[in-house]
Structures are given as C-alpha cells and as structure tokens.
Amino acid sequence: EIVGIAGPLALSRLADSSGRFKPTLFISAALTCLPLAPLVLLRSPAATGLFLALLALGLRSMIPMMDASTVSMSAAGRGWDYGKLRAVGSAGFVAVALALQLVPGFDRSPPEPIALCVGVLSAAFGLCLLFLPEAGRKSGRAKELAPRAIAIERGPTRVFSGVFVLGLVVIALGRLAMAPVSSFFSLYLVDEVKWDAVGGMWALAALSEIPLMILSGRIISKLGPMGAIVLGTVAIALRLAIYALFPSPAGIVAAQLLHSLCFGLFHPAGVAFVALLVPPERRAQGMAAYIGLGVGLPTFAGSALGGLVVQGWGYRALFGSFIVFALAGIALYLAKRRSFECC
C-alpha cells in the first residue's frame, strides 16, 4: 500500500519531465506482469514483499497516467470527453466481475490461475498502448485548446497550491468515508448478510456508474468540480447509512446503485479538479497526488481503522461510524466555500 501511494508520485515526475505518457504506461504494464511468476513460485517472505511492492507500483501507476493522458487528449482538441471514455473502463470492470462471478469458487482458487488472469489482461493493456496516441506536451500534437478541455486550462505553475491542497483534503475525507465499502463490503456481504453475490454486486455498482460518467461533463460544468465532489460525498454518507440500517439484499442493491454518485460522478469531478488547478506540464504529478494522497492514503488509513472497528463492534457499526468523515468533508467545503469559487 505504501509503495502504491509513493511510487506513482515518482513515476509521474518521470512522465512530466519527459513530456510523454506512453513510456511510463509501458513501465506500469511491465511492472504488473513481471512480478507475477515470482509471487507464485517463491515462498520467501522477503521475496513476496519485494514483488508485491513491484506489482503495486505497476497497478497503482496505470490509473493516474491514463487519466493524465486522457485529459491531455481532450485538451488537445481531439473531442474526447473524459467521463465518456472512462465509462469504457467501468464496462471492462463489469465484464471481468461478472465473468469471475460465473466461475464457481474462483475466489478460492490457487494463486496460479489468478496470476494468469492478471498477467493476460496486463499484457493486453500493454499491447493496446501501441495504438494509443501520445498526448504528452512533447508529442508534437499536444496543443492546449481550453474550450475542448474538461476544465479551464489556467492556474498556478506548481502542483500543490493552497486551493489544491484544501480540495485534496475534502476529497480525502470523502474517500476515507468510502474505505469501509472498498475494503470490507465483500466480507460484509458474505458474513453479515449471508449472500454469496460479491461479483454480481460489484458489477451492479460499476454498471450504475456508467450513465453518470457519461453525463459527468454536463453536471460538472453546472456544479463545478468541487460542487460535484460534495454531491458525491453526500451520496457516500447515505450509502453508509443504508448498509448500517438495512443489512438485507434489498438494502444492498439500493446502496450499490448509489455508486453512480459515489464514484461515477466523484471520480470525474476529481479529475476535472486536477485539470483545472494543475498546469499541463505538471498534470501527471497532479493526477498521481489525487490518486495517491486523495484516494490511496485515506483508503489505506480507513482500512486499518475499519479493521479495528469491525473486530470490536461489527460491520454495521463500521459503516455507521464512518459517516462522520463524509460529514466532515461536507462541513469543510461549506466553511471554505469562498476559496473554491474558482472551481
């Protein structure tokens, strides 16, 4: 988890300094494939730690680099709307989740078939990169056209401006509130609700996010990135309350549909926030900071804290108590609303 947070920040500096995204994406794909065989074959704890760190570096670097590349393509006048393109990623998640749900006992498989699945999909990702246009500023085609961008291309010349850090805290509080869902929902579904439908419920959540991602550009243009983020945070609080109060299949389905706002709107709004406040030459670092510090670190901390809560008071107390973090994010935004007038 620590490497997955810090590593992409380092790789993003490489992307920004070189002015190209594709080499870093190739590195991410390679770092995802290469550790798989040693993880399966070696039984040394030290080797396991080393190769898990490499795997985390590869997997966690893909998303911020892809987001930065996609935003740059939009800004370069190619007419790509980030939310619409990101919806294709959600469709891929749905396909894999449903496929694994249909394979009896896949979650109890030995490591070899799981590693094979990860390796094949990562290799396919690497092959697709051969056909991806380079969107970095040294590609010769990365002319920045503000009307085509997700957000207005202006802002400070450094990554961590005061407003960016403040927004990152609001985002982090929302993601901290989501940590029980990310880390404990599958266990909650099986242990508390006694319903073996993990793959299906995650697929339902991902399906619900696709329409909001497609419409996210219009919503963000009306509410602003931070307004959309706060709307998503309100949905997170409601989702946690449903888990805590209605531990039943009907309650689960209703809560999973709120993923449309909790991620389908929240994530494109977070990307738009970075695109608005971070200059193009620092875009990869801005995306890595958003994913690592705004999402990864609070998820890591929330998982550790959530495990203690589950051990002591159970899953329903876990979901109910983490509503506090969502409310704290909303309160911080309202208290500093004037600071976010630019976004």
Feature tags:
0% strand; mainly alpha; 343 residues
Question: Helical residue percent?
Answer: over 70%
Radius of gyration: 20 Å
Structural class computed from helices and strand pairing: mainly alpha
Per DSSP, what share of the residues sits in E-state strands of 2 or more residues? under 5%
Helix and strand pattern = HHHHHHHHHHHHHHH
Number of distinct beta strands: 0
Instruction: Give the overall shape.
Output: globular
The pLDDT mean sits at 87
Q: What is the tally of helical segments?
A: 15
User: Uncertain regions: pLDDT < 50 for 5+ in a row?
Assistant: 141-156
Q: Biggest sheet, open or closed, and with what strands and sense?
A: none
Distance between the termini: 30 Å
